[in-house]
Amino acid sequence: LIACLVLCEVLLSQWRHRESLIQILSQTDPLTNLYNRRSFNEKLSLIQNTRTQYAIILIDIDHFKMINDDFGHHIGDEALKAVAQLLSTLVRSSDIVARYGGEEFIIAMPETSLTIAREVAERCRLAIQNQTLETLTQKKINLTASFGVATSEDETQINKIIHHADQALYRAKAYGRNQVHFHGETNHG
Q1: Catalytic residue positions?
Q2: pTM to 2 decimals?
Q3: Least buried of 30, 54, 120, 184, by fewest C-beta within 10 Å?
């Protein structure tokens, strides 16, 4: 009877461990180990429910297709991992960083003003700009990224805030890339 109970406990422990792994795998992007888009959206909804101001930062690696085309998908993957690592280390523990799709990342910053979010975005932009990757032929690749920032200050709907950050991101790209733009900005910044 004791052997049976011990065996049941071991099996139950293994099942719990497996369930925990499945939970983690369902929430994270396997390449970058950041939250995936679905998990990010769930966590953003929780922030939205607290009714505190928050900021959204959208990030897009500049000329990513060219990196993949010129150096291969392995180097593209290395670029994604390097940017993910940088973003993770440059934000607060309360912020949520996720791979949003392709070469796009997103950060939700609870209880954050537009001014602070723009400062964080600029710090991230500079860190990415200073990041170099080495190819198999020892050629160095300098990375850059474009940033769009919006806050919940003027809007309450999550999808509209993300849309505003996306519009700012496209403005940053239109003005030459490797820049931070924010929603409501009326000129090149």
Answers
A1: 103
A2: 0.85
A3: 30
